Amino acid sequence: MANISDFILKQVSSAAGKVDIPSNLKDQVLGGLSDSIIGSLTQTATKAGGIDEIKSLLTGKTSAASSSITALAGNLFDKNILGKLNLGSLGSQLSGLIPGIMGTLSGFLKDQDGDGDVDINDIILSLKGGAKSSSSGLLGAATSILGNLFGKK
Q: How far apart are CA 63 and CA 138, in angstroms?
């Protein structure tokens, strides 16, 4: 199965490449954007009706700009990263990248669909923590990364 977290990290790196991020903060910002998006997907996967929301976003039936998943990713990024880094107007630019990055998620399925590599159910399972390749799922990975960023384990 293609790895959605790797895809998200590539999209974050590509989008953030257009923003002048101070080099000493770049890893924290890129990791924070990725973790916020993964966190929003993970939180959505565990709530009632969340799987349908994710499927709708990943298949392009719901636009990223109007998705509650995108709004949650923005809130997580603002709270967990921007609130700690005090980036001023740069923070607004970075938050503004999230809808575009989320919009590429439907492209993840479309790009991979013909190969048989991606099954939306596998993505949902990995978000909920039941993926074959990982016992802790993306939530554990996101928690670990955020803990490392802020010195907590």
A: 23
